[in-house]
């Protein structure tokens, strides 16, 4: 009996008895699961197709700086939902699906906000991936004001990407948080490759206050190659004026100057009156003085002050109370000896400031610049001594003039602390190669070698001598062309130091504006700041507006955004099984 219980036949019969009457439905269960998964994935596919339309709508609104909602239709009605509906009308299947899915009817605002977060994340990830590949990086902090009168500091990154210098907008930050955010973002961007940050640039009144408090030194503690560069979107004279306006008397002068300019340029009739009065005077005012009025305000007002007084007499009889009152105020201002002294002072000093910056960024002759700068210092010291003459009559003006002279020299000296990047540029003047081949710029090479320790001066000198003697490299007469020649001819290993130097110069912002490099980043930032957009999604909208070309160059951008959105949001309606 015991042996039978352990026999094969008995065990088979026992198992058969246990499963008697039970149906094996595993195959059916698997089939139902597959059907369910297939149906779910089909719904997800359609949901993602609609999400792609939503992303396109957001990109369109970002590109043209359009608000995403109809909160204030009187200013600029939102077109976000309308842009989604247009393509849906051409696809009846998607339109029906969009109307039937509760997630789109009830959660479209939430979806929009989370997609904006994903768009910003994908753009920043793209920039981070590019920065990982580059050898050198420069960071530019540019201050602007939005339509709500809030100060915004734009962080811009410059580097060489695929053989071309590019500038990427990274984001906005409040001036008070600049140091904290900048350190955090630079750490995120550079990681352990801290030596790649070679330049830091700050442009703006509020930012310059942070610079004076030691922000560049804080950055250099972590990034030893991050030299502080004087490069301004505006002309340097604008920032000199802002610095000078720390003095109350000088600030009052420039406010009055601005009032005179605004009064005459407000209407064409006032400018026409000014021109008529100038033309009927015994000693005619040259036409060039009137034509450059908007470009050279100080010099023009100095030369036209008598004409303006006479014009104000004419305009003072105007039927318009505003015009008459303004004309009377300007006559009093142009008769004020304090104002006239300041006008004479700045008329003498401002052209020399412009000349110094122009020479510094253009001239190849160091002796010429030194001679010119010495003359400039002598002029400022002379004007400072002349202030003693009016000390008895106007002690407040005398003291203010001396303070302004000190501010000008201090500000100028601050901007000349580091000039190695300019000397580096002077080592590669493609139109002067034959001249440098005969008289090698040893002083410039020494300055550049001391400042940029990643260069090997002796090897660089040899390569430059070869470069100066050749006519088949850099034919386009631009540094970008020289860089392309090096890559196109596979000379990276033959001219490694020249490649480093060229990359350094192209990555580093120069002293003045750089129209020859065709950067439009600052104008795009200014354009965006002038648009009245709500704070909700502001960072993503800025990125889509300013970096629209980068987004266009990413063929799978929508797919990346949707994948990031599905991953971060965790919504099952947009996640494949």
For this entry, give a set of tags.
single chain, 5-stranded mixed sheet, 577 residues, alpha/beta, 5 strands, extended, 5 domains, Nucleotidyltransferase, domain 5, 28 helices
* Rg, Å, rounded: 34 Å
- Compute the number of helices: 28
Q: Strands of the biggest beta sheet: in what spatial order?
A: 3-2-1-4-5
Terminal residue distance: 55 Å
Q: How many DSSP E strands?
A: 5
Q: Tally the structural domains.
A: 5
Q: State the helical fraction.
A: 55-70%
Q: Unreliable stretches, pLDDT < 50, 5 or more residues?
A: 72-76
Mean pLDDT: 84
What percent strand?
5-15%
Oligomeric state: single chain
Q: What is the makeup of the main sheet?
A: 5 strands, mixed
Summing up helix and strand content along with how strands pair, one would put the structural category as: alpha/beta
Shape: extended
Structural features, described:
This protein is α/β, with parallel strands linked by helices and 577 residues long. It has five domains: 30-122 and 553-574, no CATH class; 134-230, Nucleotidyltransferase, domain 5 (2-Layer Sandwich), CATH 3.30.420; 239-245 and 340-415, no CATH class; 266-335, no CATH class; 420-510, no CATH class. It is 64% helix and 7% strand. It is built from 28 helices and five strands. β2 and β3 (164-173) form a beta hairpin. α3 packs across α4, α16 packs antiparallel against α17 and α17 (366-386) packs antiparallel against α18. The protein is extended. The relative contact order is 0.11.
């Amino acid at each position: 009996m015991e042996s039978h219980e352990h026999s094969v036949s008995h065990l088979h019969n026992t198992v058969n008895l246990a499963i008697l009457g039970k149906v094996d439905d595993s195959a059916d269960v698997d089939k139902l699961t597959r059907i369910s998964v297939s149906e779910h994935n089909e719904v997800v596919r359609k949901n993602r197709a609609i999400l792609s339309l939503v992303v396109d709508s957001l990109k369109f609104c970002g590109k043209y700086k359009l608000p995403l909602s109809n909160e204030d239709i009187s200013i600029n009605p939102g077109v976000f939902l309308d842009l989604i509906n247009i393509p849906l009308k051409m696809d009846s299947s998607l339109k029906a699906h969009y109307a039937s899915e509760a997630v789109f009817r009830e959660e479209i605002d939430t979806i929009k906000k989370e997609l904006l977060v994903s768009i910003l994340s994908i753009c920043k990830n793209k920039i981070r991936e590019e920065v990982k590949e580059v050898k050198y990086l420069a960071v530019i902090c540019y201050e602007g004001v939005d339509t709500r009168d809030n100060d915004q500091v734009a962080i811009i990154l410059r580097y060489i990407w695929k053989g071309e210098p590019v500038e990427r907008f990274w984001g906005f930050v409040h001036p008070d948080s600049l140091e904290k955010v900048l350190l955090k973002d630079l750490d995120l961007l550079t990681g352990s490759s801290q030596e790649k940050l070679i330049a830091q640039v700050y442009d703006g009144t509020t930012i310059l206050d942070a610079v004076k408090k030691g922000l560049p030194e804080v950055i250099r503690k972590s990034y030893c190659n991050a030299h502080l560069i004087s490069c301004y979107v505006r002309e340097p004279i604008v920032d000199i004026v802002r610095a000078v306006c720390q003095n109350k008397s000088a600030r009052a002068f420039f406010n009055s100057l601005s009032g005179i300019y605004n009064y005459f340029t407000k209407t064409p009739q006032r400018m026409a009156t000014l021109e008529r009065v100038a033309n009927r005077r015994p000693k005619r005012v040259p036409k060039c003085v009137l034509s450059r009025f908007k470009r050279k305000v100080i010099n023009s007002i100095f030369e036209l002050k008598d004409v303006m007084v006479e014009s104000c007499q004419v305009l003072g009889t105007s039927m318009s109370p505003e015009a008459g009152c303004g004309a009377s105020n300007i006559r009093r201002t142009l008769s004020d000896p304090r104002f006239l002294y300041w006008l004479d002072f700045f008329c003498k000093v401002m052209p020399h400031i412009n000349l110094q910056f122009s020479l510094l960024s253009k001239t190849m002759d160091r002796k010429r610049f030194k001679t010119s700068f010495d003359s400039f210092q002598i002029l400022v010291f002379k004007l400072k001594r002349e202030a003693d003459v009016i000390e008895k009559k106007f002690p407040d003006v005398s003291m203010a003039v001396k303070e302004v002279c000190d501010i000008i020299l201090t500000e100028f000296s601050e901007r000349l602390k580091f000039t190695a990047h300019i000397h580096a540029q002077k080592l590669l003047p493609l139109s002067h190669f034959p001249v440098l081949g005969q008289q090698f710029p040893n002083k410039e090479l020494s300055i550049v070698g001391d400042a940029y320790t990643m260069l090997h001066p002796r090897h660089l000198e040899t390569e430059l001598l070869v470069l100066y003697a050749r006519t088949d490299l850099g034919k386009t007469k631009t540094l970008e062309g020289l860089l392309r020649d090096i890559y196109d001819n596979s000379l990276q290993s033959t001219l490694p130091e020249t490649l480093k130097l060229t990359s350094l110069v192209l990555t580093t912002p120069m002293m003045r504006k750089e129209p020859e490099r065709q950067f439009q980043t600052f104008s795009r930032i200014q354009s965006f700041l002038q648009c009245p957009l709500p704070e909700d999604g502001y960072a993503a909208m800025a990125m889509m507006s300013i970096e629209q070309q980068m987004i266009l160059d990413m063929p799978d951008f929508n797919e990346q955004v949707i994948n990031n959105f599905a991953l971060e949001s965790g919504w099952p309606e947009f996640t494949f099984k």
